[in-house]
Amino acid sequence: MSFPWFFAADSSTALLLPLAAVAGAALDRLFGEPRRGHPLVAFGKLANACERVLNVGSARHLRGLLAWALLVLPFAGLALWAIPGGLPGAIVDALLLYLALGARSLDEHARRVADDLAAGDLGAAREHVGWMVSRQTADLDAEAVASACIESTLENGNDAIFGALFWFALLGGAGAILFRLGNTLDAMWGYRNQRFAAFGCVAARIDDLLNLVPARLTALSYALGGDARTALRCWWRQGAVWKSPNAGPVMAAGAGSLGLALGGEATYDGQRQQRPPLGEGRPASAADIPRALTLVRRSLLLWLVLLLFGGWLRV
């Protein structure tokens, strides 16, 4: 059984998990998500089958809890029990973290939108930002497309990178699996509609709990990577009024750090919604998308350096 560096009895192994984190992040940067045979694709099919069987009848809250437990706990538990210690375990941990991370994928999606806007192809930009957000994008102007892309980049910095890293630091590869599978079920089931309002609320609440600490660490990282004073002020004033308890602090701090005014009106399922403001400053533009990606990369570097420093202190 593998344990994180801060539980390691032998100080000679204290650097293994931080080094595995660096290796996992490097693999993601080099190769991105596997184009074929990604385990999450198979997991998604399994989740769909489970939902069709269990999301019926009464007591759907309990059925949703049962579905979550059946889909997540066996995989995370197996990883926690089966990953060996020492260097072999660190290699497995790095591979599991690689599969849980989505930094390069996030970078590719956001840059595609930035390139579309730079080329003046608003139709392509609308289509490609629609791959990143749940709002309707067909009638967005260039400023709204850039704003939507940056909001998604900041929020998914936590969901696709830092949440997995946080749980990896606590539980190794098993923690990365726990977070990624839980986050995937929230993305599939966490909707407030007739089909998922009861069944999917458990997955949504568990995802909120899994993100409670990492989201705030992500917000702090964003603040340290830019205009810290404005970022912290926006986090304090705006984060709590956003509909998501974790996305609010992350996006408010990120927008404030970048000196941008995000949030505002958006259309979901044909309904116009006036969302609270995020950040302060000027409206977003295509040139700000690479700035947001740079902020995410700086934050990732900070996390990896801190993990390595913590391991070095144990040696």
Nutshell version of this structure?
The protein is mainly alpha-helical and 315 residues long. The chain has twelve helices and two strands, in the order H-H-H-H-H-H-H-H-H-H-H-E-E-H.
* Low-confidence regions: none
* Sheet with the most strands, sense and barrel status: 2 strands, antiparallel
Tally of separate domains: 1
Structural class: mainly alpha
Order of helices and strands: HHHHHHHHHHHEEH
User: Cα distance, first to last residue?
Assistant: 21 Å
- How many helices? The count is 12
Q: From the alpha-carbon coordinates, what is the Rg to the nearest angstrom?
A: 20 Å
Mean pLDDT: 93
Produce the secondary structure layout.
Blueprint: H1 16-31, H2 39-54, H3 60-82, H4 86-100, H5 103-118, H6 122-130, H7 142-171, H8 173-189, H9 201-224, H10 228-238, H11 247-258, E1 261-268, E2 271-279, H12 288-314
Antiparallel strand pairs: 1-2
